[in-house]
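Ticket 4471: requesting a sanity check on a complex prediction with uridine-5'-diphosphate. Repro inputs:
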Amino acid sequence: MNYDYVIVGAGLAGLTFARIKADEGKKILVVERRSHIGGNVYDSYNNDGILIHNYGPHIFHTKDKGVYEFLSRFTEWNDFQHRVLSFVDGNLIPMPITLENVNKLYNLNMSTEEMKDFIAKKAEKIDEIKSSRDVALSMAGQEIYEKFFENYTKKQWGVDPKDLDTSVISRIPLRYNRDTRYFTDQYQGMPKFGYTKMCESMIASKNIKIMLNTDFEEIREDIPESAQIIYTGAADAYYGYKYGRLKYRSLKFKFETYRMEEYQEAPVVNYPNDYDYTRITEFKKMTWQKSDVTTIVKEFPCDYDPDDPEADEPYYPFPTKEWKDKFALYKADMDKEKRVHFIGRLAQYRYYNMDAVVRTAIDLAKEV
Ligand code: FAD
Ligand code: UDP
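Returned structure tokens:
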């Protein structure tokens, strides 16, 4: 085991770090317990020949030029700009909250200035914004909260928005213009040949060795003192759950293929108030693949349960004070480690997007 770095997890955090250090001539071992690289951005062709995202839809978007330039070494991009429709009161209404959204919801034809007055009257004055419910109410008022946010959030997280950290609904903007794109970041798109291909290019270095189907625990005792460890798995698992298990939300995915060219009007349609799933994604609308069949995925949120094979992926750290406090116990231990560095969505217990994870890995690589 003559490695400079042993990296646990072949997701974007691990692979970014691996590649930067490999380019510096360091010897890297990546251990990954799944049978493939890429972590949650892994995509593959299904039996119908459609490129699907196996762990749910992933849209790359960032304001961070450094992250975009780094990933662009390994892929070209299509210039996809994400759009979402929300099924509310029998209509498909553009999300997020924009002039188009409000005009369609209320069947009006307001201008930007009129929308500003309209929203100012609806938005609730809340002195101290403490929860995601406060965020939505102070942004756009009770009615929009109830129609677009309340039930979607209850489905997604299994709790009331008043019990969730402000960071959850703060992800959704309000815009007084007609820009219906879901993200307005300068850099956005899908890797032209998919995320897995991008990740394959990231590890195409003679200095990187990958061990798939291998859990960290299987090699933990064999790592020499001289190697540094970059750990991107779950924080509680690293410490043998000594302070108890952290809470995560998971998803059950239902993929369906239809003999039709197009299934729905937008890449993603959200269902805040109907059905048990939160949203339907149609992959071809993001990847621009041509085919006379189309594959969609429905997402059914549930609690993470390591004993349930359908819910055994810890996708979302749970954004409440209780669980942040519990994580802080592990974090205090993590901060004391000398040769182990913790990065990524699981290890840092943060609702990170891909770009944030890549940024953390780039910054860590500069530091160590
Ligand atoms: P992961 O991708 O989770 O990788 C960690 C890897 O470590 C996994 O492969 C895991 O198997 C492995 N591992 C864990 N423990 C061990 C162990 N003990 N031994 C060996 N291996 C181990 N971000 C966006 O920017 N845009 C989006 O549209 C978007 N959509 C998303 C949709 C869904 C449904 C989800 C769940 C996330 C989405 N994200 C999105 C977030 C994105 O997936 C993450 O930010 C990013 O993939 C995290 O990378 P990571 O390397 O930190 O973690
Ligand atoms: N959300 C909502 N209604 C929507 C879309 C999002 O209430 O139509 C809330 C929900 O709580 C979700 C959060 O806003 O968890 C963030 O949404 P985003 O689309 O960023 O979630 P992601 O799918 O990226 O996790």
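Notes from triage: DSSP finds twelve helices and 17 strands in the chain. Leaving this open until the requester confirms.
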